[in-house]
Amino acid sequence: MNALSLTGQVALVTGAGHGIGRASALALAQAGALVVASDIDFAGATETVQLLKEAGYQGAAATADITDEKAMTAVVDDIVRTHGRLDIVHANAGVLMAGTALTQTLDEWDTTYRVNVRGTFLTARAVLPQMIKQKSGAIIITASISGLVGEPDLVAYNSSKGALVNLTRQLAVEYAGQGIRVNAICPGWIETGFNDPVLSHLDDKELDDMVQRQVPLGRQGTPEDIAPSVVFLASDWARYITGQLLPIDGGLTSM
């Protein structure tokens, strides 16, 4: 059997209505998983599932605010009631708001931490009981290279993603004995609307010049560059990997 195959497994992807989450949902389905695509924007989640079905894959849409504990518990309960198990979770949903220690508003700071840190924590807390019951599971958290380095004008985002880096390690250590692996992907500059708050002031030439300076591979990544690593970390090929951070950044953090 192909160790990369996820046939018979059930996966939940948060923030699956666009970008990395959508690409991850498609890649997990392609590897054989039944994918539940969740997003606070139900229309986006539904569109992702339509793409899955058009490609011949299994999928279902769900909507939940990841910062709402009852909502996340309800989504997970519905998955387990319908499918009998939950094997893979890609905790991907997040927000980015630009600002410095002097310009970031407290509302922006609180929103960033509520979504990125509280939301990811509540996602993990919702899925852990079922994974403990199964004595198996893979949780993949979308952190960021912003959690590994300091960057100007990203005080809330940098620090929140740094929190996810250590949340990944803590969960991995806490639940390894229950057969649960927890790892994080750390994307670099990825070509989605997610980065608009920090890139929208650049024209195409300025953006290209910045990328050429910062990224050894000379381009921004795409969601499709990220998704295969999610599949790998969910698969048996990564069965001895937990508590690790995988930069996917075209070499940016090696500069």
Residue runs with pLDDT of under 50 for 5 or more positions: none
CATH homologous superfamily caption: NAD(P)-binding Rossmann-like Domain
| Name given to the CATH architecture | 3-Layer(aba) Sandwich
Calculate Rg over CA atoms.
17 Å
Helix content: 40-55%
Name the shape in a single word: globular
Proportion of residues in extended strands: 5-15%
CATH-defined topology? Rossmann fold
Total E-strand runs? 7
Structural class label: alpha/beta
Major β-sheet strand ordering: 3-2-1-4-5-6-7
N-end to C-end Cα span: 39 Å
Q: Give the biggest beta sheet.
A: 7 strands, parallel
Number of helices: 8
CATH class: Alpha Beta
Number of domains: 1
Encode the helix/strand succession as letters.
EHEHEHEHEHEHHHE
Mean pLDDT: 95
Write a structural description.
The protein has 255 residues and is α/β, with parallel strands linked by helices. The chain has one domain (10-191, 223-246): 3-Layer(aba) Sandwich (Rossmann fold), CATH 3.40.50.720. 46% of the residues lie in helices and 14% in strands. The protein has helices at residues 19-30, 42-54, 69-83, 106-134, 155-175, 196-199, 204-214, 223-234; strands at residues 10-14, 34-38, 59-62, 88-91, 137-142, 180-187, 245-248. Strands 3-2-1-4-5-6-7 form a seven-stranded parallel sheet, with helices on both faces. β4, α4 and β5 (137-142) form a beta-alpha-beta unit. α1 (19-30) packs parallel to α2 and α3 packs parallel to α4 (106-134). The longest helix is centred in the middle third of the chain and has 29 residues, at 106-134.
